[in-house]
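User: Second chain of the day. Same drill as before.
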Amino acid sequence: MGGTFDPIHIGHLVIAEEARAQFELETVVFVPSARPPHKVTMPHAPALDRLRMAELAVEGNRALNVSELEVKREGISYTIDTLRDLHGVYGSGAELFFIRGADAILEMLTWKDPEKLLAESKFIAATRPGYALEEIAGAIPEFNSAGQKARNLVFSMEIPALAISSTDIRERVCEGRPFRYLVPDTVWGYIIDKRLYVQR
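Assistant: Same format as last time:
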């Protein structure tokens, strides 16, 4: 499960657990991005803080893990490189599912050579409130670079309607509004201790 996780919140954890249950996944690995190439602005919190918050968020759940692959990688981080690295970690025969929100999956399918992405992994598009999944079907290429039917590699996943966003959490912190139960308690404490997202 990739993303900036700036910060990681309850919605991310709900998506991970739902994907694990629905698709019978052995584990869900959170991969915080260091320098995402398609983000207009850089993440608000440093990569190491976002990595630490993800680690705190999954503590106690052996089915959820965190990878520092992208944080340690030099330069800009591309999804195709991460997927190939994950095959290196888990073995070439491992069946990978890349989990993102439906809007992020749609954006990824418009990048250069989506056929290569679809040859490295299957994709799970987690639906968000008010998002039409029909748009994704039109963005999927006919075949991946291995000649497989690409539409068989992208799945939709219904999740409970949780209108929680990292952007809203950052704004709440900055404005001094409550955000405690939008993130795990350990992440809430970390944000307070490190004074993340507070205007300086």
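The longest helix spans residues 10-22.

User: Great, on to the next one.
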